[in-house]
Write a structure and sequence with these properties.
Blueprint (H helix, E strand, L loop, with lengths): L3 E7 L1 E2 L11 E2 L6 H16 L7 E8 L7 H14 L2 E11 L3 H4 L2 H7 L3 E7 L3 H6 L6 H13 L5 E7 L6 H12 L5 E6 L7 H4 L7 H17 L3 E4 L2 E3 L6 H7 L3 E6 L3 E6 L4 E7 L3 H4 L7 E6 L2 H12 L6 E2 H8 L7 H9 L3 E3 L3 E4 L1 H5 L1 H6 L5
Parallel strand pairs: 1-4, 1-11, 2-3, 4-5, 5-6, 6-7, 7-8
Antiparallel strand pairs: 8-10, 9-10, 12-13, 13-14, 15-17, 16-17
Helix pairs in contact: 1-2, 2-4, 7-9
Length: 378
């Protein structure tokens, strides 16, 4: 049985941030909440008409800003989803939320709806940097959102913090980390701002810190996180002992997931013979909600060469040892298909390899992109 998750995409935001390349769109004055919930359920029903039905170990509701939808909508959605698929007893249900004041009053209701993990898009506690990033909250609202989530009963909280922001100093970057750590979150995502195509920042590039500043900030930030009891288990994910995200781990170990919602992607393995499908849904909310159009915008089989690269693209993000048997289990390919690539990476000092497993070395982590490129199809 392949471990399987469910990703749900909510495509609307109050305002699109200048660095964001996700599928997000400015929210209309009248959000079509019920129509969208109905579409999500129909979307999954259609997936299950040709894909295997599996128990779900985790759900991640991402966006956009999922917390624009009401708690009532999620009560209905989660109840109806359980009629379509089995939720495992210890299921992790994460919702992304932003620290806007509109959403604070809903946190307790979200918890009562069955959402048991909250991922707060704080990004920075510095008011100047928040303004540069186009965030709609200030530093006071950021702290208040975390405190409100705690009072609402959330005991599994992730805080998103960006580093290497425009004109950010090392001291400012560490200050953001310390502010996040003061709330004692179970999980912390700390990642570098990257300039992506089709964003405002790409067209109007801001002044980013130098490589020397970035390197110093990372070194001191990693030391601070380690001293604070946070384990780095993935490139940009840190957690207290035993608080890794089930959903994240399933992605990075090349597990399966259904993807529903506007622009959502999925990956599902069919057995006998083992075949792995990628699915993607209509990207524009208007198309997704158009009854004359199919939810599914594309479906493709991942070929063997692409499978090697995609398996390694995911698993090399992790700090842990990766057992050799996982490759054959998750791809259906024999170990000999990947062995030459592993040996080449080992010779370059990027991996540690033995008869049972491989693992990214400290040197390999500094050059993750170079490591992953070794597995690109010819």
């Amino acid at each position: 049985m392949f471990p399987t998750s469910l990703y749900i995409h909510v495509p609307w935001c109050i305002r699109k941030c200048p660095y964001c390349d996700f599928n997000s769109h400015k929210s209309p004055d009248n959000l079509p909440e019920q129509a969208y919930i109905n579409a999500l359920l129909d979307d999954l029903r259609q997936d299950l008409s040709y894909l295997p039905q599996r128990p779900i170990s985790s759900i991640f509701i991402g966006g956009g800003t999922p917390s624009l939808l009401s708690a009532k909508a999620y009560v209905h959605l989660l109840a109806e989803l359980q009629k379509l698929v089995t939720f495992l007893p210890d299921i992790e249900i994460t919702m992304e939320a932003n620290p806007g004041t509109i959403e604070h009053d809903r946190f307790e209701e979200y918890r009562q709806a069955g959402i048991n993990r909250l991922s707060l898009g704080i990004q920075s506690f510095n008011p100047v940097h928040l303004k540069t990033l186009g965030r709609i909250h200030d530093d006071t609202q950021a702290h208040r959102a975390i405190d409100t989530a705690r009072r609402a009963g959330f005991d599994n909280i992730n805080i998103d913090i960006m580093q290497s922001l425009p004109n950010q100093t090392v001291a400012e970057g560490l200050s953001d980390l310390n502010a996040a750590l003061s709330h004692q979150p179970e999980h912390l995502s700390w990642y570098q701002l990257t300039i992506e195509p089709n964003t405002v920042f790409y067209k109007q590039r801001p002044q980013l810190p130098s490589e020397e500043v970035n390197a110093e900030l990372e070194q001191e930030g990693f030391a601070l996180l380690n001293k604070s009891g946070f384990k780095r288990y993935e490139i940009s994910a840190f957690c207290q002992a035993g608080r890794e995200s089930y959903h994240n781990i399933n992605y990075w170990l090349f597990g399966d997931y259904y993807g529903i919602g506007a622009g959502a992607h999925g990956k599902i393995t069919l057995e006998a013979p083992q075949t792995i499908y990628r699915t993607r849904k209509q990207r524009q909310p208007s198309d997704y909600l158009n009854s004359d159009k199919a939810y599914l915008a594309g479906k493709e089989v991942i070929d063997s060469k692409a499978l090697i690269f995609e398996f390694m693209l995911n698993t090399t993000r992790l700090q842990q040892q990766i057992p050799h048997h996982l490759f054959q289990e998750r791809t259906g390919l024999p170990q000999v298909a990947i062995q030459p690539y592993l040996e080449q990476a080992t010779q370059k000092g990027l991996l540690r390899l033995n008869e049972h497993f491989w693992q990214v070395t400290e040197h390999g982590r500094l050059f993750t992109n170079d490591l992953q490129e070794l597995f690109l199809p010819d």
